Amino acid sequence: MEASADAGAAAAAAAARTLRWAGRAGHLGGFPRAAVFAAVGAFAKAYASLLNTTTVHNADALLRLVSARPRGTPLLTVSNHMSTVDDPLMWGFKGFPISDAKLGRWVLTAEDICFRNVVMSYMFRLGKCVPITRGGGIYQEHMNEALDVLINGDWLHSFPEGKIAQDDEPIRRLKWGTASLIVRAPVTPIVLPIVHSGFEKVMPENLFFGRRPPVPLWGKKIDIIIGDPIEFDMASLKQEASAVPHDSSSERKGWPIITPDGLDEAAQRWLYQKMSDKIQSVMERLRKKLLNLKRH
Fold first, then answer.
1. Residue 221 to residue 218: CA distance in whole angstroms
2. What's the whole-model pTM score?
3. Boundaries of each Phospholipid/glycerol acyltransferase domain copy (predicted)?
C-alpha cells in the first residue's frame, strides 16, 4: 500500500511539474503559445540569419512538407544533436515560418534540462516541447504523448542520437524511441532526415572553465542539409519481424505486445534495430554530403 501510494504521489508530482495542459492549442485562447513562438522565432531569426551565416541545402523539401503535406499525414524530422540551441536556431533560416505557432514543430526535449521547475515547464510547454525522461524507456508515458502528436497528423522533431555530440564524427548509434514511434503511429509518418554543423561553435559545451557561454555566440558559419524522405514499407517490415524466433531470454523490458500486429518484444527489438540502422545510414550519407559541400 505504501509503495503504491509513493508511486502515485511521484506520478502526480511529475504531472504537476510537466504541465501537459499548458501545451494544448486552446490554452488561454492560444495567445500564450503565439507569444512564445513570436519571441523565440525572432530570437532564432536573429541568430541564424543576422548574427551568424546560415546556409541551407534543399530547404524546399522541408518547407513543402511543413506547410503542404497531405492532410492527416504526420511529419517526423530527425537530426543530429550538436548543442543545446540546435532547436530553435535550426529553424531560424530565411524563408522558414518559425513564428507560426500552428505550423511549428513539436520537439522531444530532456526533462531534466527543460522541465526543472514550473516556470520552465510552462514556457517549454507553450513552445510545443514534449519532455522525455532519460532512462525512462521507449514506452514511458511521455513517449505516448509524442505518439499523440503523430496521431494528430502534426510535425514532431527528434534527436535520435539521444545526446549532444560536438565532435565531427560519424552519426552515432540511434536510440530506438524514434523507430518505435514510427511503428506505433496509425498513419506512417513522413520521415525527413536533417544534418547540420556549426551549432557546436555557436554554443560550445566547454568554453568557459568547462561550461557553456551564457548566451549563444555569433560570427559563426552554420550549415544545414535536408535530405529526402526515408521510406519504410511497414507491412513488409512487420511481416519480417513477426517471423523472428521468439526468445524469452530477450524479454527483459516487459514491453507490451503491439496490436493489431501482435509483435512481441523479440519482434519489436528486431524491427526497431532494423529501422534505426536505416535512419542512421541515411543520416551518415547526408553528413558526408554536407562535408563535401562545405569544401567546395
1. 9
2. 0.93
3. 75-199
